């Protein structure tokens, strides 16, 4: 509110004082706004095309790229579509992705609305706890769910004892979708919560004046205004569901349920002689599917001015009182948090302090620090922790800054390639992390000087940053769409160009969304590991690759110890971020 007032007062005072419009330097006759916009386009294009170009080229090559005898061929696509059972793989993937997206939105949207715009008991605690599942990777969350809800899990055994059977089957597509939805719901929650916190409450006040009750206001005003973050979250969640590997690998492999990601894993990376042509052709298909979903997203949000709710004059949102329904809403959120995240995470932490973790024996009988001693005994394990923190911090700053500028270019400029910037920024969500690693491995191998980057933290930061770019872009974009263009026009009235409007007005209004994007990118890059499998070396391993090595060795205790350390690091960073944002808000 203060920023909006200052911007309006500055524009008015400059106009009344009759100040001449500022003149900005031009380079070769090109204004600085176009230079910035073209620079963003080139950077994002290089960032995205670098791993994609080798993959597309490999998909139409008869042999690997390093084999000069290869010729142009579509044999990889023929082999992919004639592979026995691939039709079932496509069907399984579609069902899994759609069900995951539906469950994610079913969890996230009502909780964001209830926590941000209604009076709930312990609302601040519930708001923080909604982000807990995002603190751990799907692989570790799946491990925690297996320990509790698997056929031999602690809760499954107790339920079997009470009612004689277990009413759920974790090793199924619905079980996979439910676990993945719990892990991805915080992403959609943050998108919706950021939009709700910045939206103007004048429409709700008008509805109250006309006699509308809390429920009518929720369903007729607040929820419809959430279409931009819902659409962005849906596209992102759907794409992430297609490419996710951990949960389908844990749940689907034992019962032979194969989805697209596990198909790539078993027919490519797990093979003694990986078929890079099949991997590349499959990745190309995923890319085409995601481009189609992004195009659909753009069509749905074509009339984005319908969702503007932040203008020159804004009012502080008033929380609605649901009466006795608030206790039911609170209970549902608590059930989600406790059984979806808290208990699995607690089980994971408890596993890190035990030698044996089974329902047949009390875990408190085998308490030990041996798992942590193993982690802190070997320098390579310690180095992987430091590497992960360094990568996450540097990546969060750089990726979020690039995403914010890219959003402003795509949504608030007359740049002729604005739509291309948006497509390029969202395209990386189409590429599985494993394929990102392979693509950059090939890119660094063929580019001049690429051998100096290969195997370093820089290579891992680039790959992880590419994976996190769509998340940051999608987190900031809905917030910008709710800021009316009249603020841009007010800046231009006093002579500010596009860069001036961004620096003096939009940048300040986007600070909350930028902070949220940084937090999301930090957690995303701290958890990421798949791309590093092909890019890291002995000196640039991360927590994820180290945990994978220990997992393959069967050392689940040390895996749980590393996971606990990762959770602790994330919790500290999130706590400090919330504290800083609270102090800034109070100031």
Question: What would you say this structure looks like, in words?
Answer:
The chain is mainly α. The chain has 2 domains: 1-14 and 30-65 and 370-587, MetI-like fold (Orthogonal Bundle); 85-368, MetI-like (MetI-like fold). Helices cover 71% and strands 1% of the residues. A two-stranded antiparallel ribbon has the order 1-2. A hairpin with a 2-residue loop joins β1 and β2 (30-31). Mean pLDDT is 78; it is low at 7-21 and 304-315.
Give the key terms.
globular, MetI-like fold, 26 helices, 587 residues, mainly alpha, two-stranded antiparallel ribbon, 2 domains
Strand order of the largest sheet: 1-2
What is the terminal-to-terminal distance? 13 Å
Q: Spans with pLDDT under 50 lasting ≥5 residues?
A: 7-21, 304-315
Return the string of H and E elements.
HEEHHHHHHHHHHHHHHHHHHHHHHHHH
Q: What is the average per-residue confidence, as pLDDT, rounded to a whole number?
A: 78
Helix fraction?
over 70%
Percentage of residues in strands: under 5%
Number of strands: 2
The radius of gyration is: 25 Å
Gross CATH architecture of the largest domain: Orthogonal Bundle
Q: What can be said about the biggest beta sheet? A: 2 strands, antiparallel
User: Do you know the CATH topology of the largest domain?
Assistant: MetI-like fold
- Structural class call reads mainly alpha
**CATH-assigned homologous superfamily of the largest domain:** MetI-like
* Approximate shape: globular
Summarize the structure.
By secondary structure, this protein is mainly alpha-helical. The chain is 71% helix and 1% strand.
């Amino acid at each position: 509110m203060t920023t909006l007032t200052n911007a309006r007062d500055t524009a008015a005072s400059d106009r009344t004082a009759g100040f001449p419009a500022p003149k900005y330097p031009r380079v070769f006759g090109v204004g600085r706004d176009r230079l910035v916009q073209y620079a963003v386009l080139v950077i994002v294009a290089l960032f995205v095309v670098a791993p994609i170009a080798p993959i597309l080229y490999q998909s139409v090559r008869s042999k690997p790229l390093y084999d000069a005898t290869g010729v142009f061929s579509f044999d990889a696509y023929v082999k992919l579509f004639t592979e026995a059972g691939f039709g079932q793989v496509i069907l399984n993937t579609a069902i899994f992705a759609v069900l995951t997206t539906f469950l994610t939105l079913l969890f996230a949207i009502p909780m964001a609305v209830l926590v941000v715009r209604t009076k709930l008991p312990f609302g601040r605690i519930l708001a923080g706890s909604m982000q807990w599942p995002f603190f751990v990777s799907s692989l570790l969350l799946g491990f925690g769910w297996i320990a509790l809800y698997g056929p031999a899990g602690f809760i499954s055994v107790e339920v079997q004892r009470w009612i004689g059977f277990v009413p759920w089957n974790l090793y199924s597509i619905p079980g996979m979708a439910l676990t993945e939805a719990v892990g991805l719901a915080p992403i959609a929650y943050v998108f919706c919560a950021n939009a709700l916190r910045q939206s103007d409450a004048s429409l709700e006040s008008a509805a109250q004046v006309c006699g509308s009750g809390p429920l009518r206001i929720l369903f007729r005003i607040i929820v419809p205004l959430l279409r931009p973050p819902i659409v962005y979250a849906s596209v992102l969640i759907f794409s992430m569901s297609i490419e996710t590997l951990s949960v389908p690998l844990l749940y689907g492999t034992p019962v032979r349920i194969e989805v697209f990601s596990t198909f790539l894993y078993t027919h490519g990376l797990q093979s003694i002689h990986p078929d890079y042509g099949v991997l590349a052709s499959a990745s190309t298909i995923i890319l085409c599917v995601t481009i189609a979903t992004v195009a659909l997203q753009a069509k749905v949000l074509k009339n984005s001015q319908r969702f503007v709710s932040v203008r020159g004059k804004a009012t502080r949102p008033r929380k609605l009182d649901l009466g006795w329904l608030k206790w039911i809403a609170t209970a549902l959120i608590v059930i989600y948090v406790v059984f979806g995240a808290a208990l699995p995470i607690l089980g994971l932490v408890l596993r890190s302090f035990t030698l044996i973790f089974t329902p047949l024996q009390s875990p408190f009988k085998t308490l030990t620090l041996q798992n942590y001693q193993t982690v802190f005994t070997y320098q390579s394990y310690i180095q992987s922790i430091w590497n992960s923190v360094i990568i996450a911090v540097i990546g969060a700053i750089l990726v979020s800054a690039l995403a914010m500028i890219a959003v402003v270019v795509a949504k608030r400029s007359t740049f002729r390639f604005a739509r291309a910037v948006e497509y390029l920024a969202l395209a990386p969500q189409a590429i599985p992390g494993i394929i990102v690693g392979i693509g950059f491995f090939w890119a660094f191998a063929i580019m001049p000087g690429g051998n100096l980057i290969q195997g370093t933290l820089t290579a891992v930061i680039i790959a992880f940053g590419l994976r996190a770019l769509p998340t940051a872009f999608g987190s900031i974009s809905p917030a910008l769409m709710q800021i009316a263009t009249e603020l841009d026009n007010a800046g231009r009235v006093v002579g500010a160009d596009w860069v001036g409007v961004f620096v003096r007005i939009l940048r300040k209004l986007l600070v909350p969304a930028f902070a949220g994007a940084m937090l999301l990118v930090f957690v995303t890059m701290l958890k990421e590991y798949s791309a590093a499998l092909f890019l890291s070396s002995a000196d640039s391993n991360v927590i994820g690759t180290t945990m994978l090595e220990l997992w393959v060795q069967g050392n689940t205790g040390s895996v749980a110890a590393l996971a606990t350390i990762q959770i602790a690091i994330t919790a500290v960073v999130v706590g400090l971020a919330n504290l800083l944002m609270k102090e800034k808000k109070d100031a």
